[in-house]
Amino acid sequence: MNRVLQYFKSLTAGIYDRDYEFLKKFLTKRELEYFNRLPVYEKRHSLDVCYTLMDKYKVKDEELLKAALFHDIGKIKVKITPDKKAIAVLIKKIPPLARYLEKRLYFLQVYYNHAEYSGEICKEIGLSDKVIYIVKHHHDKNVKDEDVIKLQRADKEN
After folding, report:
1. What integer pLDDT is reported at residue 1 of this predicted model?
2. Do you know which NCBIfam families this protein is assigned to (predicted)?
3. pLDDT of residue 128
4. How far apart are alpha carbons 66 and 123 in whole angstroms?
5. I need a labelling partner for 116 at 20 to 30 A (CA). Which of 57, 70, 88, 123 fits?
6. Quick one: average pLDDT of 119-137?
7. What is the 3-state secondary structure (H, E, C) of the chain?
8. Domain total for the chain?
9. 135 and 70 in contact (C-beta within 8 Å)?
10. 71-95, pLDDT tens digit by residue?
11. 45 and 136 Cβ atoms separated by less than 8 Å
12. Mean pLDDT of 37-62
C-alpha cells in the first residue's frame, strides 16, 4: 500500500518556499545545482526523508541529512517517471523477468542500481566519505550501520 500512496504523492508533488529556504541554507551552491537536477517528485521525496529524520527522529547530523537529500541522486542518469517507477517495482516482483529486462531497458538498470550510481555522484559532488557510504548502502539488507538504518526507516516512511 505504501508504494500506491508513493505513486499518487509523486503525481501531486511540489517544492515550496520553505523547502527552497532550507536547501539554500543547508547546501552549497554546487550541491544545490545537483539536487535541482532531480525531477520535482524526487526532490519532494528526498526532502520528506530529510524532514522525517529531523522532525521525527531528531537527527542533527548534517552528513546523515545530506545523505537523505542525495540518496536517490543516481536517478538523474535517466528520466524515471512515476509510471516507469511503478513498472520497475512491479517487474522486480518477478526476479527472472527483472534480470532479463534490466539488461535491455536502461531506466530499469538505473532504477535497480541507483544506490550505487548515487554514491558515485555524491563523490563527484565532493560530499564526504560518510555521506557516500550511507547513500551507497541505503538499499542493503542486514545493515549494521546505525545511520544507514535511520535513512532506510525514513525512506520507507516516505
Report:
1. 56
2. HDIG
3. 98
4. 13
5. 57
6. 98
7. CHHHHHHHHHHCCCCCHHHHHHHHHHCCHHHHHHHCCCCHHHHHHHHHHHHHHHHCCCCCCHHHHHHHHHCCHHHHHCCCCHHHHHHHHHHHCCHHHHHHHHCCCHHHHHHHCHHHHHHHHHHHHCCCHHHHHHHHCCCCCCCCCHHHHHHHHHHHHC
8. 1
9. yes
10. 999 999 999 999 999 999 999 999 9
11. no
12. 98
d(CA 1, CA 7): 10
Residue 9 has pLDDT above 60, yes or no: yes
Residue with cell 525514513: 154
The parent domain of residue 124 ranges over 2-157
Cell readout for 40 is 520535482
pLDDT category at 44 given cuts 50, 70, 90 is: very high
**Separation between Cα atoms, residue 18 and residue 32, nearest integer Å:** 15
- Contact between 130 and 63 (Cβ < 8 Å): yes
Q: What is the CA radius of gyration of the chain?
A: 15
Report the residue count for the chain. 158
